[in-house]
Amino acid sequence: MYAYNAFDTSFLASRNAQFRAQVERRIAGHLTEDEFKPLRLMNGVYLQLHAYMLRVAIPYGTLNGGQMNMLARLADTYDKGYGHFTTRQNIQYNWPELRDIPDMLDELGTVEMHAIQTSGNTIRNVTADHFAGAAADEIADPRPVAELIRQWSTDHPEFQFLPRKFKVAVTGSMSDRAVTRAHDIGLRMVERDGVAGFEVIVGGGLGRTPMLGKVIAEFLPREDLLPYLEAIVSVYNLLGRRDNKYKARIKITVHENGLDKIRDLVNERFIAIKARFSGIDQEQFKVIEASFAPPAFIAADTHAYDTTYKSSPVFRGWADTNLHAHKADGYSIVTVSLKAHGATPGDATSAQMRVLADLAQRFGHDELRISHEQNVILPYVHKSHLPELHGILKKHGLATANIGLISDIIACPGMDYCALATARSIPIAQQIATRFDDLKLEHEIGELKIKISGCINACGHHHVAHIGILGLDRAGVESYQITLGGDHTETAAIGERAGPGFSADDIIPAIERLVEAYLAIRSSGEEAFIQTFRRLGMAPFKAALYPEKEQADAA
Amino acid sequence: MSRQFTPKVVTANALLEGDVVYLTNADTWTRKLSDAALITDEADADLRLLQAEAQTGVVVGAYLAEMSDGPNGLEPTHFREAFRRKGPSNYRHGKQEQI
């Protein structure tokens, strides 16, 4: 992992001191809220429905045990004993008091963490494949690149007041686990004739106007990355619309101007910017890359794993859903589900965070990841340790065997916390998970991605869900709209709206009808929901969702 | 014809804690909706909102929220205000902790 150098440490300390002074001036009445708001947002502080919220960046989702322990400490000391992991690999604290936030930031600074640019119209926390450095199908670890972008974008003087927020995601694998096509810029590491580079995707985004990103450069040599990114963002900075918040994201800029025009402008700008790059970025990149060297993998037999796998159905069930193929022999990637049936997706108690930190330190080469799907990953666990690790997870409510299944739901905080929300998300996720757990159908159903957003801004990624749920306010009542056929992977697709929305009481039965229809019409147990949808289209699912309409049409 | 004015309270969040607060008849802030002043006159509501907004050292984000006056006192007419009065639905946190 990257370790802060003297510059990073002093930069963060001075930034935290600056924010502490701003908070003091706000409390003393020397700053109005209008003056203070942009300053607090730059430091990740929101005001939500019931309290302030602090959003802490977990750069590219990577952290170590000491950092996870600090997150637990903050939850206990300044919050209500838990934290919420988000779809952008951040953690949110829902109950801090304004006066305490500077102390929280100082404590975070001691473990090289911060909340800078987790809000505001800036380049946000750079996200990456949560299996980075461990996945069997990886070309290269995307995290050194993500760290380089973090350093470049943090406090970048030109990009502190962009037309709108700006999100970058990086993947180093052909399997896209970072939803690169739904980001302002998506980077896919590729190789051409043995040379490392990127496919650069621009103008993706969900929200009010969902769009998949378009390829602006098929192959960008690796050393051109920062000047090219700077060219894109500076073209957007000038061209992006500041007259209308809903048209201010780069997806609209690309859509309105056309990809070709944007590409021409970027290429022109790139030449000028590239000439000013002295090469220091490449020197720094080498330092960063060295810090992400793989851990010293152990060689051991997998006997303990093999026998437990054979003898324990509970362990086997968990291993089959929660483990993924590793690039190192004898190792597994462990996904720890934060989606126990009936729990709040993405929430972890301080006790659970400490358990995860301890497991990482004992069995996982001291590394953890947070996924955009709101789970925690132990990326480097030797198989011989898995039975013991599973036993400990089980004791702490962390062994739910549901990764990729119907109860592994992404849900934004929704109107239970968020000031922007138009309806609640969490209770819907809790009810779906509980219902299908009661039915004992989860494993029979197989791979199915449900994602829930509590408003049009789509933090819950509902557009790219197999079954997306969008909570709206319809004449003072919570109403839930269903989209079908979305896809968040390398075959990304925006889901299609199924029809009129459902009330909070009717949405769970509607999802159940949808799933029953799928089970009845799938060609075999091997055909996943999304494949059945692609084969048969919307019609049979619409019929299941709206049976009354079917009958009315037939009459 | 302009729409008839519906009764409202002035609500905001406390500057330091972020708690939901309501303006009382005595122009002080309360955590309890039952102690809030229900304002039935539009001009009065506008004036008191302006006064509330000026208290930037005490509260943040003041606005008028519609309430009805039922047999059990003030009741939010919209679910958003009902959540603000109570707290989130996934944990017994926020105002419901004190009830």
Describe this structure in words.
The complex is a heterodimer of chains A (555) and B (99). Chain A folds into 4 domains: 6-110, Alpha-Beta Plaits (2-Layer Sandwich), CATH 3.30.70; 142-291, Sulfite Reductase Hemoprotein, domain 1; 303-395, Sulfite Reductase Hemoprotein, domain 2 (Alpha-Beta Complex), CATH 3.90.480; 410-554, Sulfite Reductase Hemoprotein, domain 1 (2-Layer Sandwich), CATH 3.30.413. The model of chain A has no long low-confidence stretch (mean pLDDT 97). Chain A has 19 helices and 21 strands. Chain A is an alpha+beta fold and 555 residues long. In chain A, strands 16, 17, 18, 19, 20 and 21 form a 6-stranded mixed beta sheet that branches. A 5-stranded antiparallel beta sheet of chain A has the order 1-2-5-4-13. In chain A, strands 3-14-15-12-11 form a 5-stranded antiparallel beta sheet. In chain A, a hairpin with a 2-residue loop joins strand 8 (185-192) and strand 9 (195-202). Chain A has helices at residues 6-28, 33-42, 65-78, 101-110, 143-153, 225-239, 250-257, 259-276, 280-291, 303-311, 313-322, 350-363, 386-395, 426-439, 442-445, 504-521, 529-536, 539-545, 547-554; strands at 45-47, 52-57, 62-63, 82-85, 90-93, 127-128, 168-171, 185-192, 195-202, 214-221, 323-325, 331-336, 347-349, 368-370, 376-382, 410-411, 450-453, 467-474, 477-484, 496-497, 502-503. Chain B is α+β, with helices and mostly antiparallel strands. Chain B starts with 7 loop residues before the first strand and ends in a 13-residue tail after the last helix. The interface between A and B is medium-sized, with 31 and 25 residues.
